[in-house]
């Protein structure tokens, strides 16, 4: 069961260096052929590149464990990115910080309550300007999935 006291839990800031090679690897892994990601000297990141922040967000930087969702009943429900100007480009150093913004429940269509938890991660450039925000929504079902016989 999700812990409603997790709302407001904040991870410690962590750094993410945006590297040209990593942008290229990510673009290829996602099937992109866009030369803006593959060939540019200082390519901008593809919109979902910021997902790779999870490779950098370790230990006290990740507040998600405070939510305490039951992983047997948990799902990744949604991922949303908002950019407040051009996407970051290679050579940018981002300071990132995540916090649990809300936990709420809804009645499921098949009966049973669904619990949603939302984590917001802010990405700031070297000047402190907010360049992007990621919103991760996880959901926990009321019952574990039925076991197959």
UniProtKB/TrEMBL annotation:
Q: Which organism is it from?
A: Sphaerimonospora thailandensis
Q: Which Pfam families match?
A: FAS1_DH_region (PF13452)
Q: What is this protein called?
A: FAS1-like dehydratase domain-containing protein
Q: Which Gene3D superfamilies match?
A: Hotdog Thioesterase
Q: Which residues form the FAS1-like dehydratase domain?
A: 6-133
User: What InterPro entries does the database record attribute to this sequence?
Assistant: FAS1-like_DH_region, HotDog_dom_sf
């Amino acid at each position: 069961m999700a812990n409603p006291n997790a709302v407001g839990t904040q991870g410690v800031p962590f750094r993410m260096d945006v590297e040209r090679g990593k942008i290229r690897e990510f673009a290829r892994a996602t099937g992109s052929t866009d030369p803006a990601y593959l060939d540019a000297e200082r390519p901008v990141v593809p919109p979902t590149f910021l997902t790779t922040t999870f490779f950098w967000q370790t230990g006290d930087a990740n507040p998600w464990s405070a939510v305490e969702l039951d992983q047997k009943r948990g799902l990744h429900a949604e991922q949303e990115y908002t950019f407040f100007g051009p996407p970051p480009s290679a050579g940018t150093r981002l300071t990132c910080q995540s916090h649990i913004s809300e936990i709420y429940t809804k009645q499921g269509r098949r009966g049973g309550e669904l619990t949603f938890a939302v984590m917001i991660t802010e990405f700031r450039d070297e000047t402190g300007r907010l360049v992007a925000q990621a919103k991760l929504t996880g959901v926990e079902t009321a019952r574990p999935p039925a076991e197959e016989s």
